[in-house]
Amino acid sequence: MEAVQVKHPALKYYQLGSGGDPTLWCSGCGIGQIWYFTVKAMEELELDPDKVVWVGGSGCTGRMCTYWNHDLMHTLHGRPLGFATGIKLANPELTVVCHMGDGETSAIGGNHLIQSARRNVDVVAICVNNFNYGMTGGQFSPTTPLGGITKTSPEGHRERSFDLCDLVKAAGATYVARWTTTHPQKSIKAIKKAIQNKGFSFVEIVAQCPTHYGRNNRLGDGPAMMKLQKEMSVRVGQAADMSREELKDKIVIGEFVSTQSPEYGEILRSFRPESKESDNA
Amino acid sequence: MEKRLLTGIHLWQGNEACAEGALAAGLTLFAGYPITPATEISERLSARLPATGGTFVQGADELDSLTIVIGAVWGGAQAMTATSGNGICLMQENIGYACITETPMVVVDCQRAGPATGAATKTMQGDFYTVRYGSNADYAIIALSPSSPQEMFDLTIEAFNLSEQYRVPTFVMPDEAVAHMRERVVVPEHVELFPRCKPTVPPDQFVPWRANPETMVPEMAHFGERYRMPVPGLTHDESGRPSASYKVHSAMVRRLVDKVESRADQIARYEALFLDDAEIVVVAYGSVARSAERAVRDLRDEGVKVGFLRLITLWPFPDALIRRAVGRARKVVVAEMSVGKLVREVERALAGAAVVKLFSKPGISLHTPREILSFVREVA
Lengths: 281, 380
Ligand SMILES: Cc1ncc(C[n+]2csc(CCOP(=O)(O)OP(=O)(O)O)c2C)c(N)n1
Ligand code: SF4
Ligand SMILES: [Mg+2]
Hints:
The complex is a heterodimer of chains A (281) and B (380).
Chain A: H1 31-44, E1 52-56, E2 72-74, H2 80-90, E3 95-101, H3 102-108, H4 110-119, E4 124-129, E5 132-133, E6 139-140, H5 164-171, E7 175-180, H6 184-196, E8 201-206, H7 210-216, H8 222-232, E9 233-235, H9 236-239, E10 251-258, H10 264-269, H11 273-280
Parallel strand pairs in A: 1-2, 1-3, 3-4, 4-8, 7-8, 9-10
Antiparallel strand pairs in A: 5-6, 7-10
Helix pairs in contact in A: 1-6, 3-4, 4-5
Chain B: E1 8-13, H1 14-24, E2 29-32, H2 39-51, E3 55-58, H3 62-74, E4 79-83, H4 85-100, E5 105-109, E6 112-113, E7 119-123, H5 130-133, E8 142-144, H6 149-166, E9 169-172, H7 176-180, E10 182-187, E11 230-232, H8 246-261, H9 264-267, E12 270-273, E13 280-284, H10 286-301, E14 306-311, E15 313-315, H11 319-326, E16 331-336, H12 342-350, E17 355-360, H13 369-379
Parallel strand pairs in B: 2-3, 2-4, 4-5, 5-9, 8-9, 13-14, 13-16, 16-17
Antiparallel strand pairs in B: 1-10, 6-7, 8-15, 12-14
Helix pairs in contact in B: 1-2, 1-6, 3-4, 10-13, 11-12
Bound molecules: thiamine diphosphate, iron/sulfur cluster and magnesium ion.
């Protein structure tokens, strides 16, 4: 029988030679799935890939942009949103998508996050939440749950953790959703809505890091961790009727914000005389 | 729409002249965080930039500001930030990023007395090494130091041109006294601009990080121009792909440094007086050079064989110029507002060819012409 060659649909967007061919991610890691969700969302929206810039920082997640074979900016740990804001202000016709780890989003890059949400700049922020610093070997991050074992919380984490969706909602983001890698269709749909939203969009996708968070907490391999994610997930509507205690070990999934508000670049451009004239006309 | 180039004669503060110089050079986006003594640049641009069709951003801090500037350049903007030493400290990681990504942009550092918050409203020349070596590992930058509002205008344009020509972050670094000084500034009818080094080949033949062997500078495609431009903060090969090989790394690092340092003579801007028969040469820059020039002229009137060298380009440090300028003079006086930074470079460049004496005042109080005059008399 002749071997049938099936090409992966995302291959045409994939850049070979960017490290660890095909990628540097561990087997079972959730990041590759989210790479595909993003490409799929763009394709379903029929975006011109030459008009989409991927921006990443430093971390396992930060490397996602380096496998995108169109315009990309691989920046510094925690800072993708600053660079993305500059790109968008200089050329508003571009779609700018950032992939950021939970650590860089909420620790070192926390100010970029809240300022981007407050400004409502038209940038898509996809936060890959694997509950730890994957790239540096599994230390705790601001999203590590209470009790979570990491390389820097060997006795179990004792600090409170951030709910990043709550945070950006309070700061003014106009699209906010959380899903997990166990929810591919929902994740793709959320990324599509985030791209279409004219303003700051935040999509958190909970992902398995079997190599560090999984191993340190004895949660099993990638598929086992995904199963766990599914079991822990509670829809936002359902969560509304649950007590704090009941929600303790749950991941609340769904759409938290989908609204409209003036976009940052538009506000800045409204100070130009031409736009003042057209306002008057 | 307001005019970008305000041709005519103006009474401007140094910082106002800097803002106008940037507009004359084609500035389309500015992002900065308020800090004394640079704030007037932001304030003026907050009105003038939108009025000329550009974008003014007040960043949430200096990291926010500089990331926005760098991102904007890749989106096609002509961009600048302005700050003081404290802000420069916060910007250092981003400056390294701008160097490895060869991002043309201008950073204005209005120097104030430090360390830390120091004496925020007072003058100093303390950031001489901070702008050159503040970020990690090996790289090169260009830095120009004006000593009048006219030069705040002229050198801001020059800084944009050099940053485009060499694709390197370029600093304009007045001390507070120059930033806040008010003087006559003449704006010409036309300014010469160095165009961005855009691709000369179609996308399928474009190798994004292959440098022109002559200029040592690669061509630059903006995002959205269909060139599939990878902008990498990682060590990269000519295609822009990450690499950790010694060969790729050393070629990249050496080029980043050499494209600037090996052109030090071409980049050197300076002003010299009475060097031909000088037995002693006074070297200074910024506001100190104004006092030094007065002192040198007065000493010449007294018959002292003294020469004057004002450095405008601080980095790459003009070693060859220093050697030529000092020539057969036996002695050199370096006057600077720091405990001694410029003097180290002068000593290194001269390698013992002359005796170098430092007249140091570490900020707040300017060197007066009389003080410099007495110092030179004693050394002579
Ligand atoms: C300024 C700075 N500090 C620290 C680091 C080291 N560092 C690189 S990746 C990383 C953690 C990444 O964690 P996260 O953002 O959650 O991404 P993940 O690797 O888990 O996808 C850290 C601390 C750095 N690159 N830069
Ligand atoms: S360390 Fe964790 S997050 Fe990083 S690639 Fe491996 S599994 Fe993924
Ligand atoms: Mg992480």
